[in-house]
Amino acid sequence: MSPALVRLGRQLVLVPLVALASYFLMAALPLTTDDDAKRQVAPEVLASYRRDLGLGQPLGFLRPWVKLFRGERLGTSAQGVTGDELLWKLSGSVGVGLVALVLALGWALAFALLRARWRRGRLAVLGDALPAVAFGTPVFIPALLLAPAVVERGHLLPELSAALVISVWPGIFLGTLVADALDTELSRDYVRTALGKGLSPHSVLWRHVLPNVLPALLDAVGPVATALLAGSFAAERVFGLPYFGQLYVLAVLQKQVAVVVVATTVFASLLVAVGLGVELVRLWVDPRAREART
Amino acid sequence: MSTRRVPTRAWVGLVLLVGLGLASWLAARVFPEALASTCPLGTDPTHPDRTVCELAFGGLWVSLAVGLMAGALSTALGLGVAMGARAAGGAVEHQVLRAVDAVFALPDVLVVMVLQLAGQSMLDAGHAGGLGPFGLMVVSLALVGWAGPARMFRNRLATLEGQEFIAASRALGAGRWHLLRVHLWPALRPFVLAVFLSRLPTAILAESTVSFFGIARMEPMSLGRYLGTSYAALIYEGGARVVLPAWGLLVLLVLGASLASQALGAGTRRA
Hints:
The complex is a heterodimer of chains A (294) and B (271). Chain A has helices at residues 3-27, 43-53, 63-69, 83-118, 124-135, 140-152, 158-186, 189-196, 201-239, 244-253, 257-285, 287-293. With 294 residues, chain A is an all-alpha fold. In chain A, helix 5 crosses helix 7 (158-186), helix 6 (140-152) packs antiparallel against helix 7 and helix 9 packs antiparallel against helix 11 (257-285). The radius of gyration of chain A is 24 Å and the shape is globular. Chain B starts with 7 loop residues before the first helix and ends with a helix. Helices cover 81% and strands 0% of the residues of chain B. The chains are: A mainly alpha (294), B mainly alpha (271). At the A-B interface, helix 1, helix 5, helix 6, helix 9 and helix 10 of A face helix 4, helix 5, helix 9, helix 10 and helix 11 of B.
């Protein structure tokens, strides 16, 4: 079997593993309404916990999924979710994530170009400091700074603001990778040879250098997708967006455990889908990956 | 025998970390009135009896302590897994590495949230084995963060074991324990420190985000929890006065750990 298929198989196995692990972790929770417990849960939460997880029933771990496919509500009636609502919320978060990805690519290009320019001047230290500042900034900080303009005064679209704040760190991260990969490739012999044979720097960059930089960029797509989706949790909470991240945080806070099981598995499936997409693109753009396949 | 110099950048990072942590602890625990009386940022919108300095600077040492303990525990777990995998070798090592890669692919914040939900339910029912909210957060972060160090230690051990001095020592009859104690551990030690410091920012940021959501219940409040308890007020009253100092402190913490980790890591690669 080809290495690419083996990698795809390993990623796909993650989905049922996450589903089972999260189910059995949630099914083992000692939730109680007993008086001797320090913090009780509401009786309706406990009832939905037993009902939705199918505790003590054969194949009970399939119960949350069966309910979703039947269009029934998971969790309590006030804070639960149906399959259609879950898909709608997920599409909202993915939409914000895709806009953020476009913005992140813009940041990446801008940062890579600026760092290349700064390297020769007094601003070289900024090229090192900016990634440190971006890495040290959790998404909720820029979201909080932007929130009064977005939530209170309504000056900016909340979805666009969320995409903006979650795109900064992935953008700088991608920019650092692109800048480093460009540095490495531009110093190679084939670049000198191509320039020596009379090719314009523009042609060398687009026809020879960038195709070699692309695999490094593909390696970063997984962490970037994770960062964008995880970042959307904080941005959606601050800007009050009723999408998947908000649903997840509220499900954890309100102990809607069946929703947590399903949402965790959906989140893992989304990351696996991104991984599969990356593998396919890699096979398309990287001849070395195709050679490994045959 | 020459002593290996610790790079200047590593010293700067370590001094920044230790200095900030110590100053925050002293200000919050020993001289709280100093922060209360001299704070130029005024009182907090949701805690009118406390100043922003008390809550932001006073919460720094909690974030740092969580990061240090979680970083140490995840590094120790990763080291144990890597050593176990190397000792077992063959198919067992291969399977362990697959499990490590699977855990590494999971998003930190999401898994910590699920673990906090599970841990807090056990805590409420009195089944948490003596762990409080602080210990629960440390364990959650460590359970999420061990995979990266395990991968790095395993690769480093494989490189070290392939070197000639190890082969020579084996040929002279050295046992596994002797190799580990006399040859491998001294070569691995600076790398362990670098990996531990590299875990610190990730742990601090994950804790801040989860605490910001209101999922962790730590007392005294960490920086993330402080901003999380105030976030509704910050949205409507304009929070730059509160958010900017907390942001600056988080960036300084992460910068200190990153500087020290990168400088020590570069040193071990050269060695």
